[in-house]
Each structure stands twice: as C-alpha cells, then as structure tokens.
C-alpha cells in the first residue's frame, strides 16, 4: 500500500461543489421540517456554502438552481461569493415545478410548452454568462405514470430536438450536462432513466454535452463504479451528484449508507484519470438534509468524500495489477481492501493543519458560533426551500 | 372454469372503502399540482366519495384522516354522509406532520412526545365513537435516516408500550390496525418495515389488533399474495390499502401496474375466506392521483378491484386442486390463467344494469356534469391537500 | 379498439425461434431434475422443436448452442431439420463452461485465453456458414466476483478488441448479436451488464452488430419496454430472448410472471416497426423448464407470445394518439388497457383452424401421443443438459 | 470510543462455525469449476476445517450436511475432528436434491413424500446424537415456480405439521433451526421466504425452535440488522449463515460486498446480548467459493467477522445513547462511524500473537505448505461437491 505522505499532494486542490438548495429546507412528500437558521435569500445560502469551504477547504464553489436562486444582479452575487472565497458554479434548470410541465416539458406534445421549457434553459444560459458558470445541468424529471399515457418513442425524439436547440445556444466554453434518474417523480417511465439514454442523447449533441451521474439514481443492485469507468472510457462523464441511499433516491449524506461503494467509485475516478487538476469532471453534492442540521450535514459530506478519496489513493495499483494479471482473486481483493480499511483520519487532520485548516472541521464549525449566529439572525422572512 | 352467472351473486355487496384524501391534492416531494374542482372542506370530500359510490355501487364508505378531516361536529358529518348514501369508515391517525415528531412519535425517546402521540390516538378514538367507525388505522411513519441515529431495539420496545396504551383505550367493538411499510419517509430503518414486525406487535396486543397490508409497501420482488395468505391463516389480516407501484410506494391506481398481481391477491382472499359478507377484512384504497383527475381515478380503481375479483371468482378451484395434487404444473397454471384471461367486462356491465347502476360507470360519470359542476363551484378557498 | 378480423392477417408469419437447450435438462445450481423423454442427441432436440412448430405454426426455427450442439455434419442436420419443417437459426457461442474461462474469456488478461475464445467464435461462424444461420449470438457470462479482482476498464477495452476481431470475420449477411445481463454468473461486476454497454460495444463495431434483449436480464423495476423502444429508435435491436422472472434471471415461461409486461413489450415492437415481415428482429425463447415438461412448456411459451401480440395489435392507436396529445391520462391508459383486457383466445382458436392448425395446440399435443412415444423411446444414453 | 485494550478480552472465545461444503466444489448453475486439492472424503473436509481453525483460532467447529457428509461411524468422525482440535457442529438436512422432492418435501401434497422428508430429518437427529450436535438446521428449498401451481396456504399448514413431527423427535438439549430465503430455487413463491414466516412457524413449535438468518436471503434493500435486533428481542435468533451478496444469494465471502453492513449486524448482536459466552446464537458461514481458493476463502471470511466484531465492540455506547436521547442525529452517526472507521488490524495482529496464533493468518497459511500438500496428495477419486 502507498503511504499517506506519498499521496498527500494528490489531495491538494480537491474541490467538491455544494448545492445552494442544501441549505434550504427540503424533505419528503409527507413533510418538510423547518429549522432555525435556514437561509431566506440566495445570499444567505451562498454565505452558508462559503462557511463549509472556510472550515474544510473542500468546497470552493456553489451550484445555483433557477428559478430558486433568481436574483436581479448576478454580477453582484458573483462578487458577493468571491468576497466570501467561493465561486458560483453549475447552473441547474428546473422544469418540474410549473403547472404547465405536469405532463412533460422538453418532451411535451405541445410545442408551446416545449418552447417555454427551452426558453427557460436560454434564461439559464444567460445566467451562466453572468455568473461565469461552465455547466448547464439538466435533470429531466419527465415521464409518465401509466402505461399508454404517453408515446415513449415520440417523447425521446422530441427530447433530442429540444436538447439540440439548447445545446446550440451554449458558447464554446460551456457544457450541457444531462442527468439520468431511474424513477421519481414519474412512476411508470422516465424519459432519461439510465446512463445509456443520457449517453445516446449527449453523444448525438456533440463534444460539450456530457452525462451527470447522481449516485442515488439507479436501480437496486446497480454497480455504479462500472458506469463511472464506462463513462470515463467514453469521455462522457461530466459530473457527479453525490449522495447516498438505502432504497431509492434517499438523498442522504454521501458515504453514509455504503462508504465502501463511495471508495470504489472514487477509485475508478482516480484510475480513469477523472480526478485531479487535469480532469474536467465536476464533483458535486446533491442531498436533502431532512432531519439533520444542514451546514454540518454538508461538512460531513465533503469530509466523507475527502476521506474516501484518500483511501482510494492509497491503493497499491502496481501490486494490484500484478495480482489481477496473475488471476489471484483473493490477493487482488486484499490489496484493494487494504486501502479501504486504512484509517486516514489522523493523517488528514495533520494534513489540514499544515494547510491552515482546522484539524477537525466539524468540531471547529460547532465551536465557531456560526450556527448560533444564524439561528439568532435569521428570524422572520420566508425560509428557503424546494419551491 | 366457472361461468359468470355462477359467480354473479358473489359480487353482491362488495365494498371498497375510499380515502377522503384521494380527493384532495397530493403529489411527490418535488411538486403537488393543483386541479380545478378540488374539495376545500371535509364535506366536499365526502360528497366526492359519495359520487364514486353512486356511479359504481362499490364504495359505500369513506375513510377519514385526522387532523386533515377534523370537524367540530362528527355527528353532523355522519348524517351528511348517510344522506349521500355512504358511511364514515376507518379513522387514520397522523404522527408524521408535526415538528415534534421529526425523530419519532410512538417510539420517541422523550416520554412527553410519546404521550402527545398517544393522546392524538385517544382523540382519534373519540372521533371513532362519534362516527361509528370500527377501525383505528396506524401507519407508523417513524424510523431513522442514519445508522446509529436511534436505538432500533429500544424504539421497538417503546412502540409496544405505546400501542398497548392505545389498544387498551379501544372499546370492545373497535380494532387497532397497524400498517407496515418498507421505507419512506425514513430511509435507514423504519420501525414497522414488514408484515412480520406488524404481526408480532399486534399479536402481543390481543385479538382486536390486526395488520394492514398496503400493496405498495414491500421490497422489490416480494410475493404479496403469500403474505395475504399467511396473514389470513394467522387470523391477522385486518385491512388492505390498495394501490399499485412499479418502483417504490408510487401510489398509482390499483391494478394499473400489474393487474395479474391484483388478481392473485384477490384469489388468496377468496380462497382464504377473507372475501364476502362474513369477512371482517376492510378493503380500502390508498392512492395519490398526482396527474390524473381524482374522481375518475377513484372510479377506475374500484372498477379494477371489481373486475379482478370477478376473474378470481371464476377460477375452477376443484379442477385446480386436482391438478395441484396431481403435480401437473402446467395444467394447474393454465386453470389459474384461464380465469385471469377471461374478459368479464361485458358481463359486469350487464350485471350493473340489472342492479340499477350504469353499465359503464366511467362514461356515466364523465357525462353526468358533476366534474364541470365542481370545477365551477369550487373556486376560492384553500384546496384540500396532504397537509 | 380494433377488431380481431382487422388484425388477423398481421398474425400471419409470426415466428418465434426456440432454443435447442430448452428440450434438454436444466435447472438451478442446487439440482437439475431429469425427466423421461429428454433428448439425447441434437437430432432429438431438433425433432422436439419441430413438434412445437407442427402444433403451433409459430416456431419455424431452432437456435443451436455450440458446443452443446456440435455435430460432424451440419449440412445433414440442416436437411434433417428442413425435412421436419423447420430451419436452423441463431448460433449461440459458449465461453462459460471451460476451466480456462474461469476468470474471463473475451476479456481475459491472458492473450492466449482471449484467442481461444475468439477461435471458438470463429468455429461458430464456420457452423453458421454450414447451417445458413444469420446471427451469431454472444452472451458474455464474464465478470468478477470481488471488488479489485479485475480491472473493469481494461476488460472493457479488451472486450472491444475481441469483438472487433470476431465481427470482422463475419460475412456480409451475418450479424453479431451481443446480449447483456445484469448479473450471474458473476456477482460483483459483469462486463456487459446493461443495454447501454451492449449498445456502445456494438455501435463501435458497425451496422451488422446489434443488441440482444433478454427479458430476464434487468435490475428489479426496470422498464423493459422503454429499452425496447430506445433500441428500435437507435436501429440496434437485434433479437429477444424471451422468458419471465419474478426475482432474478428465473427463466420461467414467457408471460407467466407478468403478462401485462409482455403485452407492453410487444406493443412497442409493433409501434416501432420491429414486428412483421419487414423487421429483422429475431424473437427467441430462452428458458429453463426446471420442473415442467419441456415440449408443453415451449408450446405454452409461443402461445403466450402470440396471444399478447394479438392483444397488442388490437390497440386503437389512432384514438390513443389523440388521447395522448389531449393529455387525457386516464383515457389514454383506458384505451391501452382495453386491448390488454380483451380475451382473444376464441378468435385465435378459429384463426388457427382456418390455417390447418389445431384450435388448441396444447390439447392436441397432449393427445397426440408424442410425449408417450419419446418417453418410451428415449431410454438409455445420456440425456442432453446444460453442459 | 473505547480502546482496543478495553475490548480485547471480549474477543476471546469468539467462534465461527465453518461448513464442510465450503471445502468442496460449488458454483453457479452454469458451471462448477474444479480445483486442485479439493477434498474427496468427509475426513478431508474436516481436516481443512481444522486447518482454518489452527491458523485463526476462530473456527472451532464444522457443520455437516446430510447426505453429503454421510459416514458409517460418526463416533469415529467425531474423534477424528477432536484429534484435529475441532468439534462437529450443526447438522444440516437436505430435501432439495432428490427427484421425489421436485415439487416439495415437508410441504408436499403426497403424504408418502412428506414422510420420506420427515424420516430424513429423523436420520439427521440420529446423526446429531452420534456427533453431539445441538442444532438441526433446516433450509426449506421448497416453493412453486408458477402462479396456481400449488396451494400456498395448504403448503404452510402441511409444513407446520411436518415441523411439529420433527421437533417432537428432538431431545431436550437439541434445537430446530429454521432458515428462510427470499427466493431460489423456487421462483414464484417460497414456503419460508422471510423472517416473519420462519418466526411464526418456530413460535408455534416451542422454545427450542429458532430462526436461522442467512445474510444473503433477503429482498434488495432489506435492513438486515433490524431483523437481527427484532429476532433477539423475540428470543428467536438461533443462528447466522454469514456470506455476502450484491444481487441475490451470491454466497460471496462475508464482509466482501458491504463491510459496513456486517459491522451493523454485529453491533446489534453485541448490544442485544447475542454475542459472547452466554449467547446461544450460532455464528456460521455459508458460502460458495466459486472462483477463489477455498481454505484461504474461509480464512478471509472468519477474519472479516473478527475484524468487524472488534470494530463494533469499540462503539462508545454510553456516548451513543446520550447523542440518541439528545436527538443529535449527526453526532450519533459520527460516534457510530468512528468505530467503523477505526483500523483494528494491527491491534488484532498483536492480540493473535499474544495467544500463540500467527499475526497474519492468511500469510501463515499460504507459507505453511498445506495448500501445496493437499494439491499433491488429493489426486484421483471424486472431488466433493454440492451433490
């Protein structure tokens, strides 16, 4: 196995984008619990995101969601973020919360509704120019609930056409990132349910169209790291939405349900060249903190990604290759597990301190008074949430 | 196979309870779409439920949900329903929409919160006395999201104690019905996740405690009709919450996703003595009509149950038994499928007409003007919904 | 809805290929039960396949599996089949029953083993020339059981290279058909686990490389008809392996577990142009008759496909399109279900009789004496099986 | 968190029973690979089991499977085992590999076949008297493949009767342990598919009837540790069959697929009093080493259980309880994870050395020459396998 000191420099510059909506209230269809200190403005969300970065050094950018994060002056918002030490990142569109989109948006049979959805993406692209964002992320929440309700093939064709129109509007340094999801909110069929569908759609668009892999958007039992390796092989892995799940799209803290799976995913990123300064893959969180506090929830999340990255970097890849080529099943597995089982937390604490960060970001945050401050300050107004 | 005329009388008196909340707005965590004509009061929900019964003859009672259906005068509500030709049925409690219940209700570590949840059930029992309801249905939405968050064993013990207190408050002609659910809204563990847990809890309480089987609350691949047969065998099948699902608890129209499964479930009810005038099993719907119209959605649902009941009654059980005992796998399966593949719709239409019901309840409803009327009348006020 | 007479001619010429191995013994890892009358030679398998065709008119060809169906003289076997009224169809390769392939075949790290596996496919192509078969079907049973055991990315690259070599050996009128499977016999990762992987591999090869969709090879909850529609849209649906499943790759009789799913799949074939004389999609069975008699099991299977095809043809597609474009969710679903719920069996019986076939192929077979004859004749020798 | 020295003594006496069949060949339905050195006799299996114990100190007993391990003189076999330092443990019956049991054994409609299956269990009880075994373990591989094939309710009743007859034959110090399994080898319904069914069957028998939990026998997404906690609460957890799975009953090395799940299971055992000298729960392995070497596979397995036990013992349960009662979701989870993330391997190595065991049992075995010896010695004869 490699030593921590051998991999320490590879941890430099690791960046995990946090979503603005993680700081607002979210929940299940049964209940969204409100919590003291929840942001009421986009600026307060950005401030919370910057706080996560200040304590961890891992979250230098924040993703925005339109229209949840609509502001009049994105240049001002950008400066506000930069003053707090972070950037504005990916712009996420929303075509699932308007009554017109009840039966579809980019796939709708009605041309006017499709155009409305396309126009929304044009608006997002305008925002991107103002924020300096590279990525337009499209999560397609469309589908049908009953067999026969829609023409799945026709919807796929209309989707291709709508995406083409949006893609053509992007500038040369911008990307379209298409997310797939197994099910929900549609329950019979989803228009982009799997990586294969996302891949064929973006491959038809061009080089700057790529796939977003949300770790909670797969069928039970799916080998996600295989998909990671495959998309890297095809040059089409655009970004991650990290979270964890036991059942469906539970949107729990990444690494909380199956840390070994997170380790395996990150290992494939590293071995495939999708980690590090030359990679264009965006690592993002996409989670709902239903019952836990939001900022600590985000801190825990980025730390989990960092810890599993460190473990994955420790794998003795030379020895692993030899064992694989020898067909020594148990030895190859042991070499792999050896890294996973290694406790990197003390080394990471020292590494952080060496870089002016708190050894234990969670404790440092809890002791900083920030949480008490926002709970005291953010009284009145409307708490930010999913809609 | 039996002939329709042989089974026609067995269809008499079939009763499927409809839920008051099916007529209000509901949806996914991403969006609840509003629709014209949605009830704004409990009375309007009851009127819609009565309409479903008027056109189908299948839905003589409506289940209420407390506190969604709180009224000052249940005697008046009962008369209102009876004047419209239906009864008030099962009372459903709600311990998942109060901030106090964020981390548990009947299982909470804090005795005061447990008592509050118990008191809520006492209130429900008071309502039952006023409405003449037999069943108190408890869907336990409790659980934890993260490993270590709670003590699963301690929660189970506290649940047993809370249920005991509630059960002891019931009168001799009332029942406690405990629902189980695989997951959601909790994502790591649910306190009553499976029929086994519900069974051991109600078995500890006594004879008038039984299990509610919601057809959408199982792990992928679960053989639900086996559970039906088992619970009937144990004398503990209390009620059904019918709906259908492709993935999780999708709450689609019953029979829409897998009509053959519904047929198999109803066959087990019939063969086990849980169907007909002597059965105490309550057949209810529990669905969300996210995108389809609600009253037609309910009409389709009760018709689906009726159609699959008719098909299940057609099975030539004598021939089936012979084939089973002969070990003739293909013949036994063929006898079973023969009934499922038989189109009973024309016979059912004639059967309805002979009983003063419309041959085609769906068409009759659509042509009745009721939908247009409520869309015109129910303007202003707050539409009923899940919270 | 359309009438049966409107669709009767569309049923002409329907062809479902049966697999030679369905007539031999197969089973689970725990036990393969032997049955009287099981073929001991390739010729006996072909004779059984021809029997299925004689009674149903639906199974004009039989797929072979190499090396299970190795014979010295394929020209003679071809004449033998043709004399019995059927053709030799798809050639299936086998790279999962040789000790050398324990850790991989077309993906193996050892070039010699890869070459051996490639040579096996060359041999299959030679057989194809002799049998006149169009399709070389490759089910890739390869993968790993433990994380770290293999390099998933390297295996994918080697697979691409091996397939390229095989593809280049095919003549202009031959096709390579690549099957995917979610899991089993490998349990951590499978080299072609999903349609996306199969698609990207065959798309890289060329026009005559297509995908085989086995209906039992998906994750729980997967919408298979969506994949059917998508592959047809991409021009890459090569063939079906029909069977049914409740849990994993159960290999039960097609239509036995979820007849409505089979209906939906066939509807997508029809609406996408993948059904009928102009389609190049091969419809095959791939099942294990573990406990039921094999020839009746095959007869039931092809009849199920025919019955669900008839129902799917009945859909009033014009009315469906109107309802879909109107956004009338319940009406569209009702139009779709209307066809599914229609009992076509009496019409099909008459249709068969009009074409010189028995009205009830299953009864006719059982009364024909064929089963008794083979049970009496096929005594001694080694029964055919999976290995 | 506790320190290793605080928990070191709790690791004393940990015992994991190994199955005799793990040393023979096993595989998937597609292929069973043979390997050099595979035992040809029961004695050779016992010798291999003793070897695992010699190097790990963790496996002091070996489970037998009848009829695979039938010998003429069990007293002699017992002495043979004891001379090698291990005991003969659980006796496993087999009612799935006889042609008579094709459609059922303890549930069969034919009384003669049921009696044959009961007699087989009587024979197993005779063996138990000779071997001094406490537990008769019954894995019920029975069920049906097609809807309608069997009467699920009648089968359940016959099962109860058969089990009663077997249970009554046991002596006062013997137990009946009933295993459940979600599916396979039956594919439509399994007679004991879940813990609930196993529980109601054994609860009806009496105190010495308990449940066996095989970690691979659940639906996707099932929270297994909840079942562990529940069965302990009910006093009915009899034994574990440990293995791991990604998809179905993959029978991989325990801890290989999801080490965190194994940790959670063992934590529930410890907190519920099912671990340690006073517990009567039997911890066993039940795995197939399809592609890896068998003895190293078993060594890895028992080490994984030991390592995760050590981590689970480290949990600071006092602090955890406080955090749980405070409702501090993130802190409770962190305390729990803190133990899981701690690398105990160096401490365990020292602990072993202090007890006269090799620090690294795997290396010690590989260097011992035992593997080379058995590969050289065990030539000729029939390798042991699953049938």
UniProtKB/TrEMBL annotation, chains A, B, C, D:
One Gene Ontology term from the biological process aspect of the record: L-lyxose metabolic process
UniProt keyword list: Isomerase, Manganese, Metal-binding
GO molecular function: L-rhamnose isomerase activity; metal ion binding
Domain Xylose isomerase-like TIM barrel: from-to ranges: 68-228
EC number(s) per entry: 5.3.1.14
Keyword Heme: no
InterPro entries assigned: L-rhamnose_isomerase, Rhamnose_iso-rel, Xyl_isomerase-like_sf, Xyl_isomerase-like_TIM-brl
NCBIfam families, per the entry: RhaI_grampos (TIGR02635)
Name recorded for this polypeptide: L-rhamnose isomerase
Organism of provenance: Nocardioides agri
């Amino acid at each position: 196995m490699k030593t921590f000191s051998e991999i320490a420099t590879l941890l430099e510059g690791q960046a995990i984008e946090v979503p603005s909506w993680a700081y607002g209230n979210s929940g299940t269809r049964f209940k969204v619990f409100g919590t003291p200190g929840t942001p009421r403005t986009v600026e307060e969300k950005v401030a919370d995101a910057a706080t996560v970065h200040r304590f961890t050094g891992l979250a230098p950018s924040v993703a925005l969601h339109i229209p949840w994060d609509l502001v009049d002056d994105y240049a001002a918002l950008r400066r506000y973020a930069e003053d707090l030490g972070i950037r504005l990142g990916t712009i996420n569109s929303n075509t699932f919360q308007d009554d017109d989109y009840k039966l579809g948006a980019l796939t709708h049979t009605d041309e006017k509704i499709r155009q409305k959805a396309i126009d929304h993406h044009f608006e997002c692209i305008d925002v991107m120019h103002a924020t300096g964002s590279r990525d337009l992320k499209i999560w397609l929440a469309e589908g049908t609930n009953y067999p026969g309700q829609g023409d799945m093939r026709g919807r796929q064709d209309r989707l291709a056409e709508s995406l083409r129109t949006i893609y053509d509007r992007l500038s040369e340094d911008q990307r379209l990132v298409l997310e797939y999801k197994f099910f929900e909110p549609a329950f019979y069929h989803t228009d982009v349910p799997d990586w294969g569908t996302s891949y064929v759609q973006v491959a038809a668009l061009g080089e700057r169209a790529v796939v977003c892999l949300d770790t909670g958007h797969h069928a039970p039992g799916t080998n996600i790291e295989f998909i990671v390796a495959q998309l890297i092989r095809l040059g089409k892995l655009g970004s991650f939405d990290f979270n964890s799940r036991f059942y469906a799209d539970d949107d729990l803290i990444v690494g909380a349900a199956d840390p070994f799976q997170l380790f395996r995913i990150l290992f494939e990123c590293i071995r495939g060249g999708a980690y590090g300064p030359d990679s264009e893959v965006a690592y993002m969180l996409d989670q709902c903190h239903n019952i836990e506090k939001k900022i600590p929830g985000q801190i825990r999340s980025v730390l989990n990604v960092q810890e599993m990255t460190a473990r994955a970097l420790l794998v003795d890849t030379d020895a692993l290759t030899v064992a694989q080529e020898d067909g020594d099943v148990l030895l190859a597995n042991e070499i792999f597990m050896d890294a996973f089982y290694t406790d990197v937390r003390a080394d990471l604490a020292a590494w952080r301190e060496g870089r002016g960060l708190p050894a234990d970001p969670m404790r440092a945050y809890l002791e900083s008074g920030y949480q008490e401050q926002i709970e005291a300050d953010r009284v009145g107004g409307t708490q930010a949430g999913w809609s």
